[in-house]
Design a protein that fits this description.
312 residues; alpha+beta; Tumour Suppressor Smad4; eleven-stranded antiparallel beta sheet; six-stranded mixed beta sheet
């Protein structure tokens, strides 16, 4: 009944359009009797502290208005506060993976109307620990964590292209990388769904929790789902460009044929470390579409829960 909209105001010509979208979302919620306030983020990471402040002030619902990165910041504020308030989503980003998985319309007003029908569900967030210059950092995540070429892709994709082409900028950079370079290998240990430990050498590992994907990946089905409270782990045991391209077309078409040296498994934990004599700073990690840091990286499922507004 008391919701705060936390939104990224964007920049340049998008600023006025974003403010207009937030005003319309607030109007939809108010017409349903919800008390609404809106606050813009001020810098990278500010949504986390703004969420904590809002919860301390008595808000029972925090609605993240933006892309998966903004949602991730709000999630971290929610989990760190220990609050049972609900997290809602209004898709205003380029990828909107979580919003797609929650079956939310892309139109902000329509998404707000859908949220009024959604119910809070307890979900265990993911957790990732990684290295930065200042030391070890831990943060929470919802839909995905990746180590290796996936994060390298985000590291190399120009910001201007992301603003112009959205998620398709990543596909453009993927093909550039494929023809320019080989991918760095690293060690990974992981547990399967029976609790058995495995060790592999990979160029990419992704832990995915979303079931439904946006854009050209809308036909992709991996067997992942938020309610499972585990990851669908994708392991690339190859640095061959043709295997990456082969797998991309496999999942993009929805046919999901078997690709050599690419494995899928269910797991709740994996740890990535550098190969001997290799610089750990050569391998990056990401979560929920945001570039984070470098090896060593550990990914798991948190025991605590948060409440996510989801379709019944």
């Amino acid at each position: 009944m008391h919701a705060i909209l936390i939104y990224n105001p964007a920049s340049g010509g998008k600023k006025e359009k974003r403010a207009n979208a937030i005003a319309k979302v607030a109007a939809v919620l108010r017409s349903a009797g919800v008390q609404v306030e809106a606050v813009a983020t001020t810098h990278a990471g500010s949504a986390t502290s703004q969420t904590q402040q809002a919860l301390a002030s008595g808000f029972d619902t925090v609605i993240a208005c933006g892309g998966d990165g903004t949602i991730n910041e709000v999630l971290n504020g929610l989990v760190l506060s220990g609050s049972k308030a609900a997290l809602g989503v209004i898709p205003l980003g380029s990828g909107n993976l979580l919003a797609t998985d929650l079956l939310l319309p892309r139109d902000p007003e329509s998404a707000a109307r859908a949220l009024l029908r959604y119910k809070p569900r307890a979900i265990r967030p993911g957790m990732i620990s990684y290295q930065r210059k200042e030391g070890r950092v831990t943060r929470y995540l919802i839909v995905a964590a990746g180590v290796g070429s996936d994060a390298e892709l985000m590291y190399r994709t120009p910001v201007a292209e992301k603003e112009r082409y959205g998620m398709y900028a990543y596909f453009l950079e993927m093909f550039r990388m494929a023809f320019r370079r080989r991918f760095s290998s690293f060690n990974v240990e992981w547990l399967d769904d029976q609790g058995n430990r495995h060790s592999d050498q990979v160029t990419l590992i992704m832990g995915i929790r979303a079931k439904t994907f946006p854009g050209v990946l809308r036909l992709m089905r991996l067997g992942s789902e938020l309610a499972r409270n585990d990851y669908r782990v994708l392991l690339f045991k190859t640095d061959k460009v043709r295997h990456f391209i082969h797998y991309f077309f496999s999942v993009a078409t929805g046919l999901n044929w078997k690709v050599p040296q690419v494995d899928l498994a269910h797991s709740t934990w994996f740890r990535c470390t550098p190969l001997e004599s290799k610089d750990p700073k050569d391998v990056h990690c990401e979560c929920d579409g945001e570039l984070l840091g470098t090896l060593p990286v550990e990914v798991s499922i948190e025991q605590r829960t948060f409440n996510l507004l989801m379709p019944e």
